[in-house]
Amino acid sequence: EAEGEESNRRRRLHFQDATKRHAYLNSFSTLPQSAKYGVNRFSDLSQHEFRELYLRASADTAPPFSGLKTQR
Amino acid sequence: LPGKFDWRDKAVVATVQNQEACGSCWAFSVVGATQSVRAIGGWRLQQLSVQQVLDCSFRNNGCSGGSTFQALSWLKQTGVKLVPQSEYPYKAKTGICHFFPQSHGGVAVRNFTSHDFSGQEEAMMSHLVERGPLAVIVDAVSWQDYLGGIIQHHCSSKWANHAVLVVGYDTVGDIPYWIVQNSWGASWGNEGYVYIKIGGNLCGIADSVAAVIV
C-alpha cells in the first residue's frame, strides 16, 4: 500500500512537470496549424521513463545523398 | 514534384500500430516500409511480422532497442522472408526466433539504400515519391507531449532515438510538412501520425533515411 502511494505521488509530480512543459511548448504555437502539446497517456511518465521505454532506436551514420547519378 | 503526395491515398500504407511498452520502433519502421513497397509493386497490402524482426535480427536488441540500418542489413544479407503478422503475431516482448523453411511464403528485402538528406529535403521528397515510404530515425523527445498539428519548434536533430515511417508530404499550405506514421497507436497525435515542418531538418528527419527494395 505504501509503495502504491509512493508511486501515485511520483505520477502526480510527473504530471505537474508535464503541465509546465505544455505551457512552455504551446507558447510558441502561434498559428492555427502549429503543433499543440498537452495531456496524453505519456503525461504521468518522467522524461527519463519515456526515453527508456519508447526512444530505443539508434542511427548508423548514413552517407550524404549525392543526387542524381551521372552516366559516362 | 506534386505539391502534395501521400502514399495512404494509394492504399499502400497499413494501419497505425502500437509498439506498447517495448522499444521496437526500429522494427515497426522497417516492416512498415517493406510491406508498403511490396504493395506499391502490385501485391496485396499485407501486415508483415514485426515480431519476427524483433526476435531474429540478432545484431539488434529486441525490445531494448535497435537500428533500422542493422535490421535492413540483416534482412538483405540473410534473405530471410518476412511472414505475415497473422503467422508470427506481435507480443511486445523479445522472444525466441522462429525459423521458417525457405519454401515458406513471405517477403524478402532484396536491397535498401540509406542516406543523409539533411539540407536536401526537396530531394528527399522526390525520393519518397520514387521509392515509397521511407524509414527514418528522429529525435522524438518532445513527442511525449504532442497532441497534433505541425511541429515547427522544439525538435532538435542532435540525438536520434526513434524510428518512424515517412509516408507523404504537403507543401500546399502556409507551412510545408512531412506526414509521418508513428507506432504509438492511433490515439496518439493526429490519429497516430505526426506532422513535421519541411526544411531545417527538424527532429533530424533527414539525417538517416532508408528506402527498401523488395
Task: Tell me about this structure.
- The complex is a heterodimer of chains A (72) and B (214).
- Chain A has helices at 2-26, 47-54, and one strand spanning 36-37.
- Chain A contains two helices and one strand, in the order αβα.
- Chain A is mostly helical.
- Helices cover 46% and strands 3% of the residues of chain A.
- The model of chain A has no long low-confidence stretch (mean pLDDT 89).
- Chain B is an alpha+beta fold and 214 residues long.
- Chain B has four helices and eleven strands, in the order E-H-H-H-E-E-E-H-E-E-E-E-E-E-E.
- Chain B has helices at residues 25-40, 50-56, 68-78, 121-131; strands spanning 4-6, 81-82, 107-108, 111-115, 134-138, 146-148, 150-151, 162-170, 177-181, 193-197, 209-213.
- In chain B, strands 1, 4, 5, 7, 8, 9, 10 and 11 form an eight-stranded mixed sheet that branches. Chain B has a two-stranded antiparallel sheet with strand order 2-3.
- Classes of the chains: A mainly alpha (72), B alpha+beta (214).
- Chains A and B meet through helix 1, strand 1 and helix 2 of A and helix 1, helix 3, helix 4, strand 6 and strand 7 of B.
Order of helices and strands of chain B: EHHHEEEHEEEEEEE
- Helical content class of chain A: 40-55%
Biggest sheet overview of chain A: none
| Secondary structure category of chain B | alpha+beta
Biggest interface goes to:
A-B, 35 and 55 residues
Query: Biggest sheet of chain B, in brief?
Result: 8 strands, mixed
Strand coverage percent of chain A: under 5%
Number of strands of chain A: 1
Calculate the mean pLDDT score of chain B and round it: 96
Overall outline of chain B = globular
Provide the helix percentage of chain B. Answer: 10-25%
- Low-confidence sequence ranges of chain B: none
How far apart, in Å, are the first and last alpha carbons of chain A? 75 Å
Number of separate helices of chain B: 4
Give unreliable regions of chain A as ranges.
Answer: none
Query: Please, how many helices of chain A?
Result: 2
Could you give the order of the helices and strands of chain A?
Answer: HEH
So what's the overall shape of chain A? flat
